Amino acid sequence: MTKVFMSRQPLVNRQSRVIATRLTLHLGQQGGMQDAVDALNGLESVWPPGARPVFIDCGDGCDATLLDWSAPQNATIELPATALLGPQGAELIAALQIWQPTVCLHFDPHAATALNCGVPCRFIGFDAQRFTLAQLKLLSARTRAQGMGIAFNVETPEDFRACLDAGMTAAAGWFFVAPSGVPAKKLTAGQANIVRVLNLVRTNAEIHEIEDALKLDVAISYKLLRYINSAGFGLFCEIHSFRHAVSMLGYDKLNRWLSLLLATASRDPMAPALMYTALLRARLMELLANGLVDKSEYDNLFITGAFSLLDALLGVGMEQVLEAMRLPETICDALLGNGGRYQPLLDLARGSERGDPTVIAEQAGMLGLTATQFNRAQMQAMAFADGMEL
Predict the structure, then answer these.
(1) What's the CATH number for 189-386?
(2) Which among 168, 187, 278, 279 is least buried, having the fewest CB atoms inside 10 angstroms?
(3) pTM exceeds cut of 0.85
(4) Which residue from 255, 273, 257 is spatially nearest to 312, judged by alpha carbons?
(5) Which residues contact 60 (CB under 8 A, 6 or more apart)?
(6) Please, what is the angle between helix 298-307 and helix 343-351, to 10°?
(7) Domain ranges of the chain
(8) Beta bridge partners of 105
(9) Which is the CATH superfamily of the domain at 5-172?
């Protein structure tokens, strides 16, 4: 059984949308490419479908063994230039020419030579911590004809914008999840109305009362129906009205989808990436909890993940948001960092974004989760977020 834990970084474009995901396989000092292959093969049945690329980062020790993995069409293999030019380089180049996977070459001092070794590269990855912005602009212009530039390990919104201005196609990192600016003291009128609808649903109010609240903002009804009819929801018939949604789903299930509407009231320029991340966290928490909590709590776990970025999305402190809502104490405790039984699951969902394999392994171990279970849950959550209409 694999002990290789994976972490993620989203690739965000100029429109603040997540256009790909970068998976880092943490092999450790004792791990090798065969461990990477075993871990990736374990994801075959849950690999996200569709054209959204998934970048695979196995570190500097990448060799031809990785090509024993039958990579899906939307997989992109990251390669350091040294892997193509080192002692095992000829074998790797020959394998790449036969199998022709999509390749992202890491740019380093040897990249100019590697780019001329006969392996076509669709992407060229630049470590934003290694190059100055002036260097990125120059290198982007110089290599544009050989591959689309991607900036990795971007840490701040300012660096994100600068990297795109320097010619990068997208930037990978978690630069957008921290709240920006001074938090507002209260919700806007639109946000407050969505909270009102949520509270009505949570208290099982009459359908006509909820419909009246929805009519105050027609966009809410449209967005709700778009979410419910998304591929990620998995219904076999199209929902045409709120009343129809109640009859098909019931109040409890509907509550989780109404919860997503609060995120749509965001004015943050990074809202699309934030919403994607919140959706992924929501589904990931639900999947990680399988067998750990009663199924009746899955909706609450989903809402906990979905609300975990509300402070960044709405520009209002988490305390102010929660004061306006009638949420169970278990959700509030986790969102405020006060512990409770949902806290470890939220911590692990966040840990999957931080890239520290020791922390991830410890958090997963405390929940009795293996690396395989954790990795598969991440891929399923990615597929879910990919299938939603944001």
Answers:
(1) 1.10.3210.10
(2) 187
(3) yes
(4) 273
(5) 80, 82, 83
(6) 50
(7) 5-172, 189-386
(8) 79, 124
(9) EAL domain (3.20.20.450)
